[in-house]
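This follows on from our talk about sequence and fold. Go ahead and set the record down below:
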Amino acid sequence: MAANEKRLSARRKHTLKSCMLVVANTLLENEASVKAGERETFLKDKIPPLELPYSKDELLELCEKLHEQIDMSEEERYCLEFKLNMVLEEVRDLNIKIVDLRGKFKRPRLKKVRMSADAMLKALLGSKHTVNMDLRANLKQVKKEVKEEDKQLRDVGDWRKNIEDKSDRKKMFDS
């Protein structure tokens, strides 16, 4: 893409832009004419052609009929505006309440609490808590067997006796 842009001269770019603008302008004009045609057809469908009577009584009757239609449409518009204003006012009040609530209560930073499962259940359920969640109590306890050799090594006793015993052994090897 960059290589193609470098090949285009400034004059060529200008002519391409002007061609694009002309095409866009014709498209906009066509769209505007289509919209105007749609508007005309809509108005012809909704509004009957106005037939003006020539006598004064007929003109007065037509004016009265038009005034009644205008009054009805104005009443509908007034009712809709009133309902809209009520809803908007309610929305404003609720937004103000929300802002007030946010301002009054600051969320505290939560701290980590080390709590056992029993304490947590007791806090949640109160005095109804009877289940024991102490898992360590349910574990099997294995007793360690103490070997006699290990016991002798632990009970070293007096160090002088050990030396004397070792010296007797040395004498046995020497002889």
